[in-house]
Give the backbone structure.
Amino acid sequence: MDGPLPLALSPAHRPEAYAPVFRAHGRLHIPGILTPDAAQGLFETIQAAQDWTRSIHLREGEDVDISVAELEQLSSEERADLERSLAESSTDSLQYIFDTIRISSEIRAGRPVAGPMQAVHDFINSPALLDFVARLTGVDGLAFADVMATRYLPGHFLTAHGDENPQERRLFAYVLNLTPAWRADWGGVLMFLDDDGHVAEGYVPAFNALNIFSVPQTHAVSMVTRLARTPRLSITGWIHGDV
Amino acid sequence: MGVGVQNIAVRRRRADVEHMAPPPVPSDVFTRDPGHAFDTAKPPAPWVRFAIEALRAEQLEPVGELTLIRHRAGDHGLPAWPREAEFRFAIDLTDARSSVGGGVLLFLDETGRGSGWRAESGAMTIWSGADPELTELVPGAPDRLTLIGQARALSPGG
């Protein structure tokens, strides 16, 4: 997508009205978070992105990011063997495999990112959006947001974890789903797990819906099934407090 | 819980199932119908008796035949039965360590939000309204065995 993204929150939302629900449950699902033009533009941007890396978790603090373009040079058998060996070598209870563009990490490292990705990062970190989150959560002093694009293909998943990171002050996690039409039987459900491992609440990906929840909170993304006819696309990350 | 879905899940049957100790279901009793992503079989008589007792404890009785379903890795879904009774039920006969392995009975509302249960041997889930999703079992997940059927309220004095 060329030119600036028309990114804007829908004016229909009243975050103060949602605040009691968020306080009570620690999570919220907000449909239609962006204006229709913004949501469509953001979807087209993420869908057209080329610089995906396949991210596989090995152990705490160690993730393998492999360029999807490089992976595609391998045969399907070689690629499956590599991904399986990496996933099976994981020594952590947390496991995941999905595609990502780590927008904020690239910017922090001083590496150039595509203009639309920079625009996404700037929008998520804009005063308008951080103020929206502050009014929604009742928490002031939000410092910045991490931003990454994620793409889940069939077989991709994220096992249960709580998002804690002692080196950072993650207050909230967010997932902005961008796939226009998704079916429940395609998997990719954001699941909040109770102490018995049951699904206390699950959100099927919905186009232009923001899921936001307090950290820590045990959650997972169920495996995307072979039935899925399109990738599960999202913008996701954490909102940090002042250290 | 979703609109039109009433779940009165009960999970009190684990001990009863263990004490009953029915023989393992031979794998060759299962068949797979075209279009289904799971195997089905006629349940052994001890399981049927157990289901009847479990339903009676909830003031329900079965309607029609019960079916034993086996989901293996990659399988998902429940049969699309013609509705013959107000309630449907599922009794888990196997355990899953986590919802992440799939095989979750996931009750969703029309907006795609809901809740669900991983497999717990002996747990009985009863619902009316829309059927839940039974999510796909991931590679490496153990088989999920489930006894399913339909039920109605016990008639007074029945």
